Every structure is written in structure tokens, then in C-alpha cells.
Amino acid sequence: MRADARRNREQILRAAREVFADQGPDAPLDEIARRAGVGIATLYRRFPHRAELHRGVAIEVLTALVEAAHRAAAEEGDPCLALRRFMHAALDLKIGSVLPALLGRFTVDEVLDSVPGDAVDPIDAMLLRAQERGLVRSDVVFGDITLMIIRLTRPLPGGGRFAPDDGLAHRQLDVYIDGLRPTGSPRPTTPLGGPAVDAEAFKRIRERVIDDAHEAHEARDAHEARDAHDARDADEAHDARDAASDLDPDPA
């Protein structure tokens, strides 16, 4: 792929991620083209069908998430700083608003097969190293990290009134990260309630989400097939009425 074509594709995917997060998966494609700084014809050349754009965005987000986890773990000597760096990078991907909106719009397996690796293990390894060094409280588990990122990237009530202020989510994330400090820090910690979603539990939940997405995709296909069948029946009935009308004798 030529450099300019690759650049256009990346710009379209970034813009689509933002627009889908703000307006949902059925957002106008011309708005995506406008934000990407390309013509609508360029968008259609790269993604002839909306479903291809949905898949492209999902692959781009998940790939960036995996890369962010590995990069933070490799480049930060302090595991707590690595965890903080990853969480802020993941926040920018808006995974909590983009991916749930796209589930059911594609076959999940084809997306996961296109993503190089999995972010679960490197994230869990960063957390465990931080706990071993006494930098993060020992009762924090994998789900406390990732599910908070998802919560912070979900749309807030009021839509566009909050959307422009991405700094608000990063501010709240910093407050949360400071709360990961162990007992003995200047401020006391509060015992954690609720279920502890560790890495293995998260993987099991993810499998259930994938199964649900499969069912949603199949139901959508079946619904579209029924609509197409009904449309054909209506066209055939209309044609039959026209043919019968043509056979009627001229009353004149």
C-alpha cells in the first residue's frame, strides 16, 4: 500500500472511531470523511461497505490496545508508571463507547484473528509486578484496571456537552490510579467490595460476550434475509397485479 493510501486509511479509521463513539455505528459516512480530511469517494474506495469500516475500526482499536500494553511494559522500568501509561493510552482509544456499539455488526472471530496478540496477559503482568514491589494494593485484580477504563470511556449523560472534554476522563483516571496505592500510603484505603474479576474470569466473560455477539450477528442476518424475502414477495405481487391488469379487456 502506498504511503498516501496508508495515511488516508489511518485517518479514516481514527475519524470513524471518534464518530462511532459520539454518534453510534450508523453515523453518516460523510461526517467521517469530513473529520478525516478526505473526500467521500476516498472513503468508499478504502471501505466500499459500512460493515468493512466497522470491522476496520474494531481491529484498529484492539490492535492499538495490544500495542499500548506491550509498549508500556517494555519502556517503563517502574511497573506502576507502566500501568498508568497503559491506562491513559487505553482511555484515548474510547474502547468503552466504540466496541460495545460495534458488537453484532461483524463476526467477532474474523476481527480477533486479525489482531496481533492479546492485551490481557501483559496488563496482568504489569499489575502483578507493581504489587510485588508494594506499589499497588494486593487486593486489586485485572478487572479493576480494565473495567474502570471501560466505565470511564462510556458516554456521559448529555452527549455532546461532555464529549469535547476528554481531559475530564483523564483527571478521573488519575484519581482512581492514586486509589490503587496500598495501605500505608498517606491516605487510608477502603476495603474493596463486589466481585473480583481477575484475568481468568475476564477471559470467561469475554467468551460469553463473543457468543452473544455471534447470536446478535446471526439474528441481524436472519432479519435482513426476511426483509429481502418480503420485499421480493411484494415486488412479485405487484408485478402479478400489473400483468393481470394488462390482460383485462379494454372496457371501451
Automatic annotation (TrEMBL):
Feature: DNA-binding region: 28-47
| DNA-binding keyword on record | yes
Q: Name the domain of life this protein comes from.
A: Bacteria
> Molecular function (GO) terms listed?
DNA-binding transcription factor activity; transcription cis-regulatory region binding
Q: Name one Pfam family in it.
A: TetR_C_43
What residue stretches are annotated with the HTH tetR-type domain?
6-65
Assigned keywords, A-Z: DNA-binding, Transcription, Transcription regulation
Composition bias of kind Basic and acidic residues appears in 208-244
Q: InterPro entries, from UniProt?
A: Homeodomain-like_sf (IPR009057), HTH-type_TetR-like_transc_reg (IPR050109), HTH_TetR (IPR001647), Tet_transcr_reg_TetR-rel_C_sf (IPR036271), TetR_SbtR-like_C (IPR049445)
Region (Disordered): which ranges?
208-252
Is Membrane among the key words of this record? no
Q: What is this protein called?
A: TetR family transcriptional regulator
